[in-house]
């Protein structure tokens, strides 16, 4: 089943390097993923990690509280941009590089 094209109505935020992107506008889902600067920073951090990161590590990198990081991660997860696996007692988050945001809208990370 082919999905109908999504309307792109949101400007790419200034903190996203749009040089590799086809458009300078984003669909609602992608804007939701990067429209908050620290959420986009999370995408970039996870993009640089091949094995994924725990909330604790991400919290240390971004200097935000754990609930804030978890909140951002849950939104990214709901957009399918981030995947989570249980590793022992830890939850490890990694970037879903095959997600629409990165394959189709080409958000850089
Ligand atoms: Zn998109």
TrEMBL record:
| Origin superkingdom | Bacteria
Q: Which Gene3D superfamilies match?
A: Winged helix-like DNA-binding domain superfamily/Winged helix DNA-binding domain
**InterPro entries listed in its UniProt record:** ArsR-like_HTH (IPR011991), HTH_ArsR_DNA-bd_dom (IPR001845), WH-like_DNA-bd_sf (IPR036388), WH_DNA-bd_sf (IPR036390)
Enumerate the Pfam families for this protein: HTH_5
Cite the HTH arsR-type domain residue spans from the record.
19-109
Alphabetized GO MF terms: DNA-binding transcription factor activity
List the protein's name: HTH arsR-type domain-containing protein
Organism encoding this protein: Candidatus Kaiserbacteria bacterium RIFOXYD1_FULL_42_15
């Amino acid at each position: 089943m082919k999905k109908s094209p999504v309307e792109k109505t949101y400007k790419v935020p200034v903190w996203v390097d749009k040089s590799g992107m086809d458009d300078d506008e984003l669909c609602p889902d992608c804007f939701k993923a990067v429209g908050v600067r620290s959420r986009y920073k999370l995408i970039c951090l996870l993009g640089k990690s091949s094995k994924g990161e725990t909330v604790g590590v991400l919290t240390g990198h971004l200097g935000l509280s754990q609930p804030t990081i978890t909140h951002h991660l849950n939104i990214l997860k709901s957009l399918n941009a981030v995947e989570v696996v249980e590793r022992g007692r830890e939850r490890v988050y990694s970037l879903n590089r095959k997600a629409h945001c990165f394959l189709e809208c080409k958000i850089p990370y």
